[in-house]
Write a structure and sequence with these properties.
Layout (H helix, E strand, L loop, with lengths): L6 H34 L5 E3 L6 H7 L4 H7 L13 E3 L10 E5 L6 H8 L3 H7 L13 E5 L10 E3 L6 H7 L4 H7 L13 E3 L15 E6 L4 E2 L3 E8 L4 E6 L2 E4 L1 E3 L2 E7 L7 E10 L10 E11 L18 H14 L25 E3 L4 E2 L8 E2 L3 E3 L6 E3 L4 E9 L3 E9 L2 E8 L1 E2 L6 E2 L4 E4 L11 E7 L2 E3 L1 H6 L4
Parallel strand pairs: 8-15
Antiparallel strand pairs: 1-2, 3-4, 5-6, 7-9, 9-13, 10-11, 10-14, 12-13, 14-15, 16-19, 17-18, 19-27, 20-26, 21-22, 21-25, 22-23, 23-27, 24-26, 27-28
Bound molecules: zinc ion.
Zinc ion (ZN) binds next to loops.
Length: 482
């Protein structure tokens, strides 16, 4: 028997010998292509560098140490990043894709943000390294994966005592199960009174932790900084009685048009850190749907004003003797306590000195001071404007004179009440032309510059008080409050 062997078959079999080589090449090809895919999108959560970003900003925003950020991205020189670079953000296991940042606003909680972005609270907390609800501060950055960055603008539905979720859904004309799903609730029985749910239409939007009676809460020019004047605006149902406090100091709200407005002075020596900002409200009677009112607190970060330290000042010892300064300081503080309900000014304040001196300052507000070698326990409570003895002093805005008398430290001093807890004060004058109780108009001559009291030379020491706190007067010459 002859066994015929088909040569073509042998040749075919020989190809099997090449198979491992072939698969190796194939797998190499595939792995190369997957490497290519990875270089398009980094492995792990990443941020795309924007115009104006520095590596330090990015590290701060994502709350990662800068050296870890450099290491994760093989960056040796922290100054070397380019717009469009995709930087892997370390320390966020289980999170993938492009990350974006949004500025946090007042009136949000972890829960309300979770509902707004439809992102589980746990994931949002981990992404933002939130260790407590206090870490959600207005003005700081909120990190969110780009795929979730389409915040819902659903109408807010407040859960009321004595109303079931089913009733609420019916009252608001929404499907209760959709309400349950949209708000990550375990069931229709699980909503708690006071909780604020996200509705499903896109009628209105607003601070997620407030009931619908409050349409909007905004704080202008965040962050809070030592010496600054802050403006809080609230829009909501007419007739709400609003009150508030920052770290226990009372905030007064005034009705203005369709808004409630509060001015807030930040003390120049306030230790930088987190402080509770509370806003509470009482609804007008006969609003049973909303209940009695609300009480909301959120931490705000007060930053350092980076004020300079003045060289030690030498003054007459009796002007820093506590026996003299304490009663005078007490009197001075008492002058700014009363909050007149009528706002007398409108727009930016005029300069209190003639044009030739208006941009000439011998000392700015806020600088830290030591007198006669003592500790730096003092700060400069106003703005020192140039001018000699006899330089004219004008009222910067309409107001009522509440003090016009000589004092030991402040010399010949005048204080004007402009309403809403805003006062201006004028020290070291040589002449005073107004009396307690006088109304003054902007530009009215109220006195002459001098060198009376604790001074090293003639100048006008000018103060602006907001809610009993001396703030930076330059802000009032540049910006219209509120
Ligand atoms: Zn001064």
């Amino acid at each position: 028997m002859i066994v015929s062997v088909d040569l073509s078959q042998i040749r075919f079999l020989r190809y099997f010998l090449y198979l491992p080589v072939f698969t190796a090449v194939l797998s190499l090809l595939f792995s190369t292509s997957s490497v290519n895919a990875q270089s398009d999108l980094p492995d792990g959560p990443f941020y795309q560098v924007q115009e104006g970003d520095t590596l330090w900003d990015i590290a701060l925003r994502f709350r990662v140490p800068i050296d870890e950020l450099q290491q994760a991205n093989g960056i040796t020189d922290a100054a070397q990043i380019d717009v469009g670079n995709q930087l892997v953000i370390p320390g966020l296991e289980g999170i993938q894709g492009l990350l974006e940042t949004r500025t946090m606003t007042y009136g949000e909680t972890l829960r309300s943000l979770s509902r707004r972005y439809r992102l589980p609270e746990e994931k949002l907390a981990r992404l933002n390294h939130l260790t407590s609800p206090n870490s959600i501060n207005p003005g700081s950055m909120l990190v969110i994966p780009a795929q979730y960055d389409n915040p819902t603008s659903g109408r807010r539905v407040g859960v009321r005592a004595g109303k079931s979720l089913l009733e609420l859904a019916m009252l608001n004309d929404v499907n209760p199960w959709e309400l349950v799903l949209a708000n990550n609730l375990p069931g229709t029985w699980s909503a708690l009174p006071g909780d604020v749910l996200v509705g499903l239409d896109d009628e209105t939007d607003g601070p997620g932790a407030f009931l619908e009676a409050i349409e909007d809460v905004s704080i202008e020019d965040l962050p809070f900084v030592q010496g600054k004047t802050m403006v809080i605006r609230i829009r909501g149902m007419p007739g709400i009685e609003l009150s508030g406090s920052l770290n226990g100091s009372e905030i007064t709200f005034f009705s203005m048009g369709d808004e409630y407005v509060a001015l807030l002075g930040i003390h120049a020596m306030q230790e930088p850190g987190l402080y509770p900002l509370n806003i509470s409200g009482k609804y007008p009677p006969g609003e049973p749907y909303f209940g009695d009112g609300f009480d909301f607190s959120q931490s705000v970060l007060i930053r350092d004003g980076d004020y300079p330290f003045d060289p030690v000042l030498t003054v007459a010892p009796e002007t820093i003797d506590p026996k003299v300064t304490e009663p005078e300081d007490e009197l001075w503080e008492s002058l700014g306590v009363n909050v007149s309900p009528k706002k007398l000014w409108d727009g930016v304040f005029q300069s209190p000195v003639p044009d030739v001196f208006k941009d000439c300052w011998t000392s700015l507000y806020g600088s830290r001071r030591s007198y006669n070698g003592g500790p730096y326990d003092y700060y400069h409570t106003g703005l020192d404007l140039c001018g000699g003895v006899g330089t004219e002093i004008f009222a910067p805005a309409p107001g009522r004179v509440v003090f016009a008398e000589p004092l030991t430290v402040r010399g010949m001093a005048t204080v004007i009440d402009h309403g809403w807890g805003v006062y201006t004060a004028y020290d070291h004058q040589s002449e005073i032309y107004v009396e307690h109780g006088n109304f003054v108009e902007p530009g009215q001559l109220i006195g002459l510059g001098g060198a009376t009291g604790r001074v090293t030379g003639p100048h006008l020491h000018w103060e602006v008080w907001v809610g009993g706190i001396q703030v930076d007067p330059l802000d009032w010459l540049m910006k219209s409050f509120p």
